[in-house]
Amino acid sequence: MKPEARLRRSPKPLGARFRRAFLFAAEKHAAQARKASTIPYIAHLMGVASVVLEAGGDEDLAIAALLHDVVEDCGGAPMLKDVRRRFGSRVAKIVDGCTDADSYPKPPWRERKEKYIARLKKENGDTRLVSAADKLNNVRSILSDYRAIGESVWSRFNGGRAGTLWYYRTLRDEFLRYKMNRITRDFELAVRELESLVASEDSQHSPHHEV
């Protein structure tokens, strides 16, 4: 059976649990910013939650979107227990599935990413949906920064240019093993656009390029 997240069939107001999750995420990530920027990290978490909600995600999925980095960046394995206690086992399972490291120091970048992709192949639809929303928000940020500063954007990533492109291409291929949804379709389009920009930049610096 293909994994599918449980999506809302009709509008339902977000409740007190979502508000608590937002405050919890804002507190835990308060001192953090997006890579090589002064943008508060909560902006990314809000962006991921927005993608999930716009795709029909329910309150649990939206909460998991807000908290998807809290284990990796704010306390490791003990934090997952706190998430489970506060927000329930479904949210905790998604957060765990979106975490590529729960210990410090983190393992090497390539090792973490390869293991994450291998785990993603076995995750349920809930986790895959939140993961895809996270990666879509990331690629959109890369696209925006690439348009602004060009190739220097890669210096902020541990995987560099080649590693980062490999990672998002591999994630795209994994997400597309199943029927496209709104998020995975947009992710595929965003990765394709990034590839096009990079290819255009490469052609400009090709020895065969003529002015």
Could you list some keywords that capture this structure?
Hypothetical protein af1432, 211 residues, 10 helices, mainly alpha
Model description:
It is a single chain. The mean pLDDT is 92. Helix 3 (59-67) crosses helix 8 (125-149). With 211 residues, the chain is mainly alpha-helical. The longest helix has 25 residues, at 125-149. It contains ten helices and no strands. The protein has helices at 16-28, 42-54, 59-67, 70-73, 77-87, 89-97, 109-120, 125-149, 160-175, 182-204. The protein has a single domain (16-204), classed as Orthogonal Bundle (Hypothetical protein af1432), CATH 1.10.3210.
Summary?
The chain is mainly α and 211 residues long. It has 10 helices and no strands.
Judging from the principal axes of the Cα atoms, what is the shape? globular
What is the CATH third-level topology name?
A: Hypothetical protein af1432
Helices and strands, in N-to-C order? HHHHHHHHHH
Portion of residues in helices?
55-70%
**Main β sheet profile:** none
Q: Estimate what percentage of residues fall within beta strands.
A: under 5%
The chain-level structural class is: mainly alpha
Mean pLDDT: 92
Low-confidence stretches: none
Radius of gyration based on Cα positions: 18 Å
- For the secondary structure, the number of strands is 0
What is the class in the CATH system? Mainly Alpha
- Give the number of helices: 10
Total of domains: 1
> CATH homologous superfamily, by name?
Hypothetical protein af1432
Looking at the overall shape, the CATH architecture is Orthogonal Bundle
Distance between the termini: 54 Å
